[in-house]
């Protein structure tokens, strides 16, 4: 049976919510620091942004390590952001537009292209990563408002998702950004032409009329057939956006089969099974705990997971308990 937050704990959460406005005034500076990855200044003109990976950084006591990872794939919970940041600078210097198909990610290069699949309704959409975040516990990607609308996430606020980077397209986007241009998402996804092949050399031939042999009828040669028409390849429908961060806000939704998934809290992963067992025994007081084995790059790891839990709300509550028990690296996973 999925783990649910006890009723007494739900009452405590409600009590905390009543006192939240007072607490917010006292911790304004801490909240300001947590939002530094999304710039708050209002720019005076549009800008295209730039390529950025960035150095390791710390938010609310948690360290994040940006890296170039073109094999990235992850499941978890997505959220969305918009009104409070619309028109302001993103982490790589673009102008954030909540109506563009973009997203914030904590570690992927900017810009990158990722496919976000809503595991609850099967909708999939390609979005461009151009910002840092989310920094709320238990979230793996922060979508623009338009992206959330198309994926069916806006009303609920969160959803179980799978995020996969598009390696070839992301590298193409990154190279263009390094050269000072921003390629629209649709163009980055277009197949590139193959290498050009030089034409074979043609020998010169000189024509010379010869007299026909005697008593031989000569038939008139038929007119040569006209050469086949060669159609020119159409010009790209999507131009390189040299001075603008805008792109189509309609996108191209895909639909994939929906499979049953469950939410867990992953407290840690260890190469030593004994360490995994110790952590599992320690956290069993919070919720049902289990150890699962997985292999990454040929190495075996033992994952400690709590759950499954019944909902995103329950997952958030359990995650805070695990983090509060001294395990800040715990995260929400969907499997």
From TrEMBL:
<keyword id="KW-0449">Lipoprotein</keyword>
<dbReference type="InterPro" id="IPR007730">
    <property type="entry name" value="SPOR-like_dom"/>
</dbReference>
<dbReference type="Pfam" id="PF03330">
    <property type="entry name" value="DPBB_1"/>
</dbReference>
<feature type="signal peptide">
    <location>
        <begin position="1"/>
        <end position="33"/>
    </location>
</feature>
<dbReference type="InterPro" id="IPR036680">
    <property type="entry name" value="SPOR-like_sf"/>
</dbReference>
<dbReference type="GO" id="GO:0005886">
    <property type="term" value="C:plasma membrane"/>
</dbReference>
<keyword id="KW-0732">Signal</keyword>
<dbReference type="InterPro" id="IPR036908">
    <property type="entry name" value="RlpA-like_sf"/>
</dbReference>
<feature type="region of interest" description="Disordered">
    <location>
        <begin position="208"/>
        <end position="234"/>
    </location>
</feature>
<dbReference type="GO" id="GO:0008932">
    <property type="term" value="F:lytic endotransglycosylase activity"/>
</dbReference>
<dbReference type="GO" id="GO:0071555">
    <property type="term" value="P:cell wall organization"/>
</dbReference>
<feature type="domain" description="SPOR">
    <location>
        <begin position="257"/>
        <end position="335"/>
    </location>
</feature>
<keyword id="KW-0961">Cell wall biogenesis/degradation</keyword>
<comment type="function">
    <text>Lytic transglycosylase with a strong preference for naked glycan strands that lack stem peptides.</text>
</comment>
<keyword id="KW-0472">Membrane</keyword>
<dbReference type="InterPro" id="IPR009009">
    <property type="entry name" value="RlpA-like_DPBB"/>
</dbReference>
<protein>
    <recommendedName>
        <fullName>Endolytic peptidoglycan transglycosylase RlpA</fullName>
        <ecNumber>4.2.2.-</ecNumber>
    </recommendedName>
</protein>
<dbReference type="GO" id="GO:0000270">
    <property type="term" value="P:peptidoglycan metabolic process"/>
</dbReference>
<dbReference type="InterPro" id="IPR034718">
    <property type="entry name" value="RlpA"/>
</dbReference>
<keyword id="KW-0456">Lyase</keyword>
<dbReference type="Pfam" id="PF05036">
    <property type="entry name" value="SPOR"/>
</dbReference>
<dbReference type="GO" id="GO:0042834">
    <property type="term" value="F:peptidoglycan binding"/>
</dbReference>
<keyword id="KW-1003">Cell membrane</keyword>
<dbReference type="InterPro" id="IPR012997">
    <property type="entry name" value="RplA"/>
</dbReference>
<comment type="similarity">
    <text>Belongs to the RlpA family.</text>
</comment>
<keyword id="KW-0564">Palmitate</keyword>
């Amino acid at each position: 049976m999925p783990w649910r937050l006890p009723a007494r704990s739900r009452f405590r959460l409600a009590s905390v919510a009543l006192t939240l406005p007072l607490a917010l005034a006292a911790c304004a500076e801490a909240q300001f620091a947590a939002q530094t990855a999304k710039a708050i200044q209002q720019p005076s003109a549009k800008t295209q942004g730039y390529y950025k990976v960035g150095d390791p950084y710390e938010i609310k006591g948690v360290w994040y390590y940006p890296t170039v990872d073109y094999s990235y794939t992850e499941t978890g919970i997505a959220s969305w952001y918009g009104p409070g940041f619309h028109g302001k600078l993103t982490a790589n210097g673009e102008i954030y537009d909540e109506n563009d198909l973009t997203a914030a990610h904590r570690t992927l290069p900017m810009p990158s292209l990722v496919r976000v699949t809503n595991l609850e309704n099967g909708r999939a959409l390609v979005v461009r990563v151009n910002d840092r975040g989310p920094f709320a516990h238990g979230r793996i990607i922060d979508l623009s408002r338009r992206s959330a609308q198309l994926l069916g996430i806006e009303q609920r606020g969160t959803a179980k998702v799978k995020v996969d980077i598009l390696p070839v397209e992301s590298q193409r986007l990154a190279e263009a950004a390094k050269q000072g241009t921003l390629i629209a998402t649709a163009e980055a996804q277009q197949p590139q032409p193959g290498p050009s092949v030089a034409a074979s050399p043609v020998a010169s031939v000189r024509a010379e009329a010869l007299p026909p042999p005697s008593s031989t009828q000569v038939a008139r040669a038929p007119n040569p057939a006209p050469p086949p028409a060669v159609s020119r390849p159409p010009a790209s429908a999507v131009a390189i956006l040299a001075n603008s961060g805008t792109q189509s806000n309609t996108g191209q939704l895909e639909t994939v089969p929906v499979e049953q998934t469950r939410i867990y809290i992953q407290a840690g992963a260890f190469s030593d099974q004994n360490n995994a067992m110790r952590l599992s025994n320690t956290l069993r007081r919070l919720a049902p705990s289990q150890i699962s084995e997985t292999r990454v790059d040929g190495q075996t790891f033992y994952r400690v997971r709590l759950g499954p839990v019944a909902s995103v709300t329950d997952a958030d509550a359990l995650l805070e308990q695990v983090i509060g028990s001294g395990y800040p690296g715990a995260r929400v996973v969907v499997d």
